[in-house]
Each structure stands twice: as C-alpha cells, then as structure tokens.
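MOLECULE: protein
FOLLOWS: sequence and fold
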Amino acid sequence: MLLTLDHLTVRLPGTARPVLDDVTLRVAAGEVVGLVGESGSGKSTTAKAALGLLPGTATASGTVRVDDADVLALTGEELRRHRARTVAMIHQDPRAALNPVRRIGDFLRERGADRDRAAQLLGAVGLSDPERRLRQRPHELSGGMLQRVVIAGALAARPRLLLADEATSALDVTTQAEILALLRTLRAEQGAGLLFITHDLHLAAAYCDRVYVMYAGRIVEERTAQAFFAAPAHPYTRGLLDCSPTLGDTSRPLLPIPGRPPSLGDAFPGCPFASRCPDAEPACETWRPEAAELPDGGVAACRRAPAAVPTATERNLS
C-alpha cells in the first residue's frame, strides 16, 4: 500500500474536538482515491499529514505511512527528501505556494525540472507560450494560470504519491478535463497514487476508483465510486448528493442539508451528524460512530448500518 493512515487522531490546543478523529484511509499505487465533504471537515489536514505538515502545536496519534516511511517520525533531511521526491501536493490556493518575487521558471527548477522539461510541463498543463511564462512572475498570471503552474510544479519531481487539493476548481471545464487526463497519465506511466480532494461529488464518482466521505474530522463512509453514487449508505453522503446539481436534470429539486457544519469548538458525545440527520433517533445522540461493513465491502459509520441500502431509483422516488 502506498499511503496508509491508521487510526490517525490530530488535536490542537484549545479545541473541543480533534481536527482528525480516528481516520483510517488507504491509497494504493496506481489508484485514484477521492476525499469529499464540506469545508472544514478535515480533508486538507488529512492530505497534509501525508507530507508531515501538521501544525507545530498539534499532537498526533496513530500511523501515517508512505511506502515504508513512518511520516510522523521523519525529521530533518529525511523529511525534506520525503516532501521533495516521494509526495507532492497541489494546494487549493496557488498564490500561497509561489514566491511572488521569483520567476515561474525558478519555481519549476527548484522542483527538479531543467529548462526544457519546465517548458514541456507548462505546455502539458495548458499554458500557451511556455517559454515566455518561464520568465514571468506570479503577479503577471491569472489565478487559473497559476493553478496550472502549481500542478506543473507538483509533476516536476515525478512523485510516487500526488495529493490534489481542489486542484482543478479554478479551471474552466475544458482545461479541467485536460488536467485530469494528465494526472491519469502520470498514474499509468509511473504507478503513482492520487488522493483527489474535491467538493464536486459527481466528478469524484466519475474520476476516482474509491471515495471516502469525511465529516467533522471523521471518515463516515468509504465506497467504490460506483456504489458511492448509486447507493450511498450514510445519511450525510445522501445529503451531499441531494444538494448537488446534475447536468441537464432541472426537474430534481436541490435539498440542502439543514443546520451548519460543525466547528472545532463543537463537541459531540455521540454521532456528530445527529443534529442535522433526517434519520436520527434519540440513541444517535450518545452512540459513538463505528465503521460497519456493508454488503458490497464498503463501510459506513452509522448506527443503522448495515441496514438495507436504497438504490438510486428508490431514492429519487422517495
């Protein structure tokens, strides 16, 4: 297994609950794994754990392994080598990843690409006139163009594991399709694994092999992409799909999840989704979620699982 998180719990001082709570997640070599959930659910922190980029004040328990490396135990030169060669992350905010006074070419060369490969990478991610872009600074490019530069930088070192945090959210749909195809090519050519963080549930279902759903720092469901979209088992997953628009289907009403996503100041004696869940029962207020295996081999952390999972047709009729 390329990336293994086992019962990872991360706490920050002054918070009522962990940022990550007993997270278990796997990414195999050559696999695309989706991670979805509302903002603040812990998706980016999960990805940063694979890089050893947890906050300095954080306390962590559990295991984070990439290949044979215990990431939480890496320090100094070993940690720098891990971040430079084994794992690469495409950040949500490209401006935060680029030095505003350094040229684009310098950014790519720092990541191991010579001038010819740097220009090739910029062309591959859809930037016109790559040679000119190498001489430009970040303020001369739009946000979407900078996102492509950051993607090129992540690909420069030919990483074994790629962490894509909303990597295509700033791109138009045509360029998005080109970038996703490029990431698939990387996976095929190098056997790289990809952890794909996104708010686009339909994209996750179409692009990923498996999908993890995260809520309040916990994994609430893990399914194959086909099962995730066709027959979601956790009420939160069903809620996310019910409020996601679909192309061409204007007759289906969008049903928002009531309430608000929890903050780190909110503590839960039982299921953290109970106050927003349409299927909650009094016992859910005190039942601590435990992953239950579903008939198809997936898991869902719901007290009522593994109850019969409705089909997509049944959900649409209800």
